[in-house]
Design a protein that fits this description.
The chain is of the alpha/beta class and 479 residues long. The chain folds into three domains: 118 residues, 2-Layer Sandwich (Gyrase A, domain 2), CATH 3.30.1360.120; 130 residues, Up-down Bundle (Four Helix Bundle (Hemerythrin (Met), subunit A)), CATH 1.20.120.430; 185 residues, Rossmann fold. It is built from 17 helices and 13 strands. Helix 13 links the parallel strand 12 and strand 13. Helix 6 packs antiparallel against helix 7 and helix 7 runs antiparallel to helix 15.
Length: 479
């Protein structure tokens, strides 16, 4: 139901200076006003969008629950476009729960996850892409991610999607008018008239898809596994990235027996670094579990830092780790391949880290180059910090491929949006081919209508109830 009155704690769990209970719905004022005791004897509804000081009283025991500031906000100038009341009390879990129970006892219902934002969408304040940007903004881990979320919340993505949708609709209208109203002597549109409109829609979609992989990186981050045999300096490398002693480091091989994951900011991208146990054959059951988890972390990673001890000759374990990494799909496509051919290899990037460069060098660089042709080699020392900046630069180059985020960039950050745009592009191209082949226009219209509906999934105009429920269920309660 979306016509009843809902309530929830809108601030995160835990202790804080201020906590907020949000109430939204047609009866929001009637629910909260009797609970509010103000100085004097006033019972009139306070002015809209102004804070009112008072106390929240338990309706059953008349006990004072908290001193509060309350904002009564008239529809439609609210987040949900319904009447909204926000009660600002002290941020203790117990006091907020007691205030919420008093509100629910007055007839409000506990809100479902994301229900406030769903109502904002259903009432036309936000489209679906903007609603999803609310959660992206809350969960942003970097300034770049926050900027992208704000662009989407301001409607920049939606505007571009609507331009493609309008161009598609123009083609559909011309085709269907000639089919549905033959008695009006509407001329049958020709390919020369329709192709420019299809091309314009296709151009808008391709423009959005061109930056979608980069956009998802800024939103979701990049899983980077630090892999190698025991005692090559993987944990020291993690600590160097974090600039703190997060992982235990000793001279004893096999100190790390489990994966350790931490996040750092790499030029605006959340980089999820995963320190792993050394990959080596072992009879120790505990160490074997660590090795198994290391392999699982590597298989799920987007990028691998493959670490070698450059103060020692290559070992059979080094060669084994290299072979396993290549079997997992990590590699360096040849520079002679075209960009499309490189994408077709489905290889994930790997950087070879030659650690302990402050010591005498004994590693066979030529053999490594045979194992990893075209690879990028970075010499580092976590003892002296030598090469660490070059490693960060090389990692950023691999991730961003020379592309930087500008303040006005519009990038698709959602896998859902990306998939809808891919389906749009496929159907627009199919419609263009059909026109060239002089297929009957009613068949062309089917592809165009499918493309039009796929674009509507991004903004929510053609989204199913199941899709809406799934999206908003991922929000926190109170948002």
């Amino acid at each position: 139901m979306h016509n009843d009155t809902i309530a929830a704690i809108a601030t995160p769990p835990g202790v804080g200076g201020v906590g907020i209970i949000r109430v939204s719905g047609s009866d929001a004022f009637e629910v909260v006003l009797p609970l509010l005791k103000r100085p004097g004897s006033s019972t009139a509804l306070p002015s809209s969008h102004k804070l009112t000081y008072g106390q929240i009283i338990d309706p059953q025991s008349s006990e004072v629950l908290d001193e509060v500031l309350v904002a009564f906000m008239h529809a439609p100038h609210t987040y949900t476009r319904e009447h909204v009341v926000e009660i600002q009390g002290h941020g203790g879990p117990l006091v907020l729960q007691r205030i919420l129970r008093a509100v629910l006892a007055r007839g409000a219902r506990l809100a479902n996850p994301g229900e406030f934002t769903m109502r904002a969408f259903l009432n036309g304040r936000l489209d679906l892409a903007q609603a999803e940007a609310v959660m992206d903004l809350i969960e942003s881990e970097t300034e770049a991610g926050q900027r992208l979320a704000m662009q989407q919340l301001r409607g920049r993505l939606s505007d571009q999607v609507q331009q493609a949708r309008h161009a598609t609709l123009s083609v559909i209208a011309r085709i269907e008018a000639s089919i549905d109203f033959p008695e009006d002597d509407i001329p049958t549109p020709q390919a020369e008239e329709l192709n420019p409109l299809i091309d314009e829609a296709l151009r808008q979609v391709e423009l959005l898809l061109a930056g979608s992989d980069q956009g998802r990186l800024y939103r979701q981050g990049l899983r980077t596994a630090i892999i190698g045999r025991p005692n090559v300096g993987k944990s020291s490398l993690l600590n160097a990235f974090l600039r703190t002693e997060r992982a235990i480091v000793t001279a004893i091989a096999g100190t790390t027996r489990d994966t350790v994951e931490e996040a750092v900011n790499l030029r605006g991208i959340p980089l999820h670094l995963i320190d792993t146990a050394g990959i080596t054959p072992t009879e120790d059951p505990v160490e074997a579990i660590g090795v198994q988890r290391s392999r699982a972390a590597a298989e799920s990673a987007d990028v691998m830092l493959l670490v070698f001890d450059s103060s020692e000759a290559l070992t059979e374990q080094d060669r084994l780790v290299s072979t396993e990494a290549q079997a997992m799909g990590f590699g360096v496509p040849s520079s002679t391949l075209s960009s499309d051919e490189q994408v077709a290899t489905h290889q994930r990037p790997v950087l070879l880290v030659l650690n302990k460069s402050d010591q005498e060098q004994r590693i066979d660089r030529a053999e490594l180059e045979q194992l990893w042709p075209h690879a990028t080699f970075i010499s580092t020392s976590t003892f002296s910090d030598a090469g660490l900046q070059q490693l960060e630069d090389a990692l950023a180059d691999v991730v961003l491929a020379g592309r930087m985020l500008h303040s006005e960039s519009v990038l698709v950050t959602s896998t859902r949006h990306q998939e809808a745009l891919r389906r749009t592009m496929e159907n627009l191209r199919a419609a263009g081919r059909s026109l060239e082949q002089r297929v009957p226009l009613d068949f062309v219209s089917i592809d165009l209508r499918t493309a039009y509906d796929a674009l509507g999934e991004v903004t929510g105009e053609t989204a199913s109830d199941d899709l809406l429920d799934k999206i908003f269920s991922e929000f926190c309660i109170g948002k």
